[in-house]
Amino acid sequence: MSKLKPCPFCGRTPIIERWSSGGLMYMVKCGNPDCQVPAEGYPCGHDLNKVFEEWSRRADDEQKRNEYQI
Q1: Is residue 8 part of a domain?
Q2: Over the stretch 37-66, which tens digit does the pLDDT of each residue have?
Q3: Which among 1, 26, 56, 62 is least buried, having the fewest CB atoms inside 10 angstroms?
Q4: Does residue 21 form part of some domain?
């Protein structure tokens, strides 16, 4: 399981919520109640690893990957 990065908006530590809705569901979101909710919403799903990866992905990750593939 990958390590969660801090919130991309405020830098605070994220929290993990889980609930049962047609199976166990997970959501990673900012732990700061005053932080803005991203327009696309928080990452959620049945696979905790995928939810972690989606939270920790940043816009510049793809650019950095492309720079190393010269």
Answers
A1: no
A2: 887 889 999 999 999 999 999 876 655 555
A3: 1
A4: yes
> Is the Cα dihedral 44, 49, 52, 58 positive or negative?
negative
- The answer to the question of residue 32 being in a domain is yes
Domain interval for residue 35: 14-63
pTM of the model: 0.75
Q: Report the amino acid identity of residue 60.
A: D
Domain count, the chain: 1
Longest dimension (CA), the chain: 45
